[in-house]
Amino acid sequence: AQSVSQHNHHVILSEAASLELGCNYSYGGTVNLFWYVQYPGQHLQLLLKYFSGDPLVKGIKGFEAEFIKSKFSFNLRKPSVQWSDTAEYFCAVNDANAGNMLTFGGGTRLMVKP
Amino acid sequence: DVKVTQSSRYLVKRTGEKVFLECVQDMDHENMFWYRQDPGLGLRLIYFSYDVKMKEKGDIPEGYSVSREKKERFSLILESASTNQTSMYLCASSTPGQGMNQPQHFGDGTRLSIL
């Protein structure tokens, strides 16, 4: 079965610091990859997604993620975080042969200090 | 914009009660999902449905059932609630799309406490 690991459960950064959140998955076949964000008190929202093509994906609010197939990774990055980026971030993987079922990582709670 | 509405934000029930969580989406999506969200465990899929009256077990279906009588509505049922079912429950919907890879749209969640 697919599993998704997010190695950092809690991250605290100061504003303007750079961010990288790790995500690794276990399945070696064709996958679709997603990052979702949940701001305090709000519902989960799609941040960015990778289906095929350029492994460097740009998302909303200045976020990007890089798919490295050889490392089974899809790390999320932002060069300069803002206080409003305080949220919980979830990596999710869809095995392309398993329909629309998503497997989520455990989440990373990011706090950005003003 | 896709709207996924869960009937309750907060719910408190007693052990042994039968609990219904309702979810409605307004975008004519074929796929609907129920997850539970627990700290450190992320989202875990309970059940999903790809069409009316169709349902499939997810990763943790034990203790739950679902109902999809209409396309827009997907209900999660706790047959006999237990304290270990205290959690945040999230509903989501999506279109099948090409290659089954369309993003899921989430509701605000129902925080359920079983006493």
Polypeptide structure, described:
The complex is a heterodimer of chains A (114) and B (115). Chain A is mainly β and 114 residues long. Chain A is 0% helix and 50% strand. Chain A has no helices and twelve strands. Chain A has strands at 4-5, 10-14, 19-21, 24-25, 31-38, 45-50, 56-58, 64-68, 73-78, 87-95, 103-104, 108-113. In chain A, the strands form three sheets. In chain A, strands 2, 5, 6, 10, 11 and 12 form a six-stranded mixed sheet that branches. A four-stranded antiparallel sheet of chain A has the order 3-9-8-7, with no helix packed on it. In chain A, a hairpin with a 4-residue loop joins β8 (64-68) and β9. The radius of gyration of chain A is 14 Å and the shape is globular. The relative contact order of chain A is 0.34. The model of chain A has no long low-confidence stretch (mean pLDDT 91). Chain B is an all-beta fold and 115 residues long. Helix content of chain B is 0%, strand content 55%. Chain B has no helices and twelve strands. In chain B, the strands form three sheets. In chain B, strands 2, 5, 6, 7, 10, 11 and 12 form a seven-stranded mixed sheet that branches. Chain B has a three-stranded antiparallel sheet with strand order 3-9-8, with no helix packed on it. In chain B, strands 1-4 form a two-stranded antiparallel sheet. In chain B, β8 and β9 (73-78) form a beta hairpin. The mean pLDDT of chain B is 91.
Write the layout of secondary structure elements.
The complex is a heterodimer of chains A (114) and B (115).
Chain A: E1 4-5, E2 10-14, E3 19-21, E4 24-25, E5 31-38, E6 45-50, E7 56-58, E8 64-68, E9 73-78, E10 87-95, E11 103-104, E12 108-113
Parallel strand pairs in A: 2-12
Antiparallel strand pairs in A: 1-4, 3-9, 5-6, 5-10, 7-8, 8-9, 10-11, 10-12
Chain B: E1 4-6, E2 10-13, E3 19-21, E4 23-25, E5 31-38, E6 42-51, E7 54-57, E8 64-70, E9 73-78, E10 87-94, E11 105-106, E12 110-114
Parallel strand pairs in B: 2-12
Antiparallel strand pairs in B: 1-4, 3-9, 5-6, 5-10, 6-7, 8-9, 10-11, 10-12
